[in-house]
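Task card 7
Instruction: Convert sequence to C-alpha cells.
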Amino acid sequence: KGDKPAPPVARHRLVMAALKPLLDGPVHALALTTKTPAETQRS
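Output:
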C-alpha cells in the first residue's frame, strides 16, 4: 500500500522545506519555542 511513512531522506527534505521560511526570517521566533522548562515556568 502507499500509506507507509516517507523514507528518512524525503521526510528530512519536507522538514527542511517547512523550516526554511523560519530560518530565512524570524529565527528569534524559533528561539522562543526552545526555552528550557525552568525559563518557561518562570515567565
